Amino acid sequence: MITTNDASAVTLENKKILVVEDEQEIGNLLSLHLGDMGAEIHHASDGFTGLELATQQPWDLIILDIQLPGPSGLDICRRVRKTNRQVPIILLTSRTTELDRVVGLDVGADDYISKPFGMMELIARIKALLRRSGTQPAPELPQSNPDLPVRINNLEVKETSRQVHLSGKEIELTAREFDLLMHFVRHPGRVFSRTELLDQVWGYNHEGYEHTVNSHINRLRAKLESDPRNPEYIVTCWGVGYKLQDHRV
Ligand code: CA
Questions:
Q1: Domain spanning 2-133 has what CATH number?
Q2: CATH 1.10.443.10 fits 150-244, yes or no
Q3: Tag placement on the chain: N or C end, fewer CB within 10 Å?
Q4: 166: CA distance to ligand 1 center in Å?
Q5: Distance between the two ends of the chain, CA-based, in angstroms?
């Protein structure tokens, strides 16, 4: 039972983690280190096996290499997200191009880490994601659960059931997108810098990862805004950050 928000208190004990990685050495290294921490690691070394395992079994977390024989990590991520918005997904990128990162986050990954990476950094990322998913209610929460929605213009957000409706139509958000939106909803009108959002929503702050925030903001806008280039909900405050336009004022 997790009773603290401190990511360092999260343990990998008995966590079921899928690693899809064709480079044997990295796969072995991950299995060894994460296994040592008590996690139950399943390692697939090609995209076909990875896709099958990722979509047919429940996981606490999935780590996907992008370049794989068979379906790529991006393909697998996209397929998983069609039916499962909650499972945390980390992408391993071999190239450090912005494009990889943007595409990776656009297909619904929660985080990415560039190779070569340090094991401690990866473990910190895993813990931060597990901490978040561990504090979320189970997705199959009974519908009768009292959950007063927050309404902002045509947007309706229910925190307990993690549902978002726009003009009455349900919008599907990944776990991280919801967390980000909820953070804005809890602080309407307040401006957050990308660094603050990384720290407060992602639970860590590594220099150079501010781009993660941009990608998630863009995805949220694509889902919530009728004109994402001219947003009415999450607006950019140039040179400072982002804020939720408070339509209730
Ligand atoms: Ca690879």
A1: 3.40.50.2300
A2: no
A3: N
A4: 39
A5: 39
Looking at the chain, the domain(s) classified CATH 1.10.10.10 span: 150-244
Ligand 1 centroid to Cα of residue 47, in Å, is 10
CA separation for the pair 173, 77 (Å, rounded):
14
CA of 95 to the centre of ligand 1 (A): 10
Q: Return the structure tokens found at 54.
A: 């990722």
For residues 89 and 45, the answer to whether their CB atoms sit within 8 Å is no
Decide if 198 contacts 242 (C-beta within 8 A). no
According to CATH, where is 3.40.50.2300 located in the chain?
2-133
Residue 112 CA to ligand 1 centre (angstroms)? 14
